[in-house]
Amino acid sequence: MSFLAARRRHPAARALLLLLALFVMGALSTLLAPGQQSSADTGTSQQVAEGKALFAVGCGSCHGLNGEGQVTSTIQGPPLAGVGAASVEFQVGSGRMPMAAPAAQAPVHPVRYSEAEIAALAAYVATLGPGPAIPAPEEYNTAGVSQEDIARGGELFRTNCSACHNFEGAGGALPGGKYAPSLKNSSNLHIYEAMVTGPQQMPVFNDDVLRPEDKKAIIAYLNDLHSRPNQGGLDLGGLGPVSEGLWAWIIGIGGLIAFAVWIASKGVKAK
Description:
By secondary structure, the protein is mainly α.
């Protein structure tokens, strides 16, 4: 007994026991972890591979085969490292990409890819660098949003967005041939993605600028605004003083000119 007790008290005993425990834990991890990890990553790896193949065919000619970007006299494809999956879903899912030719701004076209293909492209671009992920449905689903939050969303929209998108979200012109698009037919998902990615001339409204609940309130306000019946008759496109002033000039000033010409013609006939 004294011999065994002396061996347990040997200075190397604790180190040997620690090494043995680490060896056992490593063996168990090797036996149990690989099967679970491979089954979890198979779909993701396959999706990324499919996205890379789609990217090479539809996007690589402008953005480079590895998303490094190209800027020449005929090609203006920015690098995509760090734009995130949300930017890809917004641009491709709204039909803005791929562009047929360089332009001041990417116009909306019919969507050319399926939802699965868009998800694959987004998954591939997400591997190029960290960026905003595609938001979960609960982040932009406005079901159950209170009237108080809708009113707060209206205040936030008028403060942060109406200078470009118009007080009704009808869009407006910007310098250099660019424009803020109308939001009347935009989905909740794309409005949210636009706020977190900042496409074209739009600034990025990250969570430090607009909290997730603020973004949802803005989306709820736009949905409520665009679902209201028009009680005032002809809204002239919802462009406010621009269209109203145009018609005032056409009808008002035009009517005065026509009346002046009529008076003059009567005077000439009288002579």
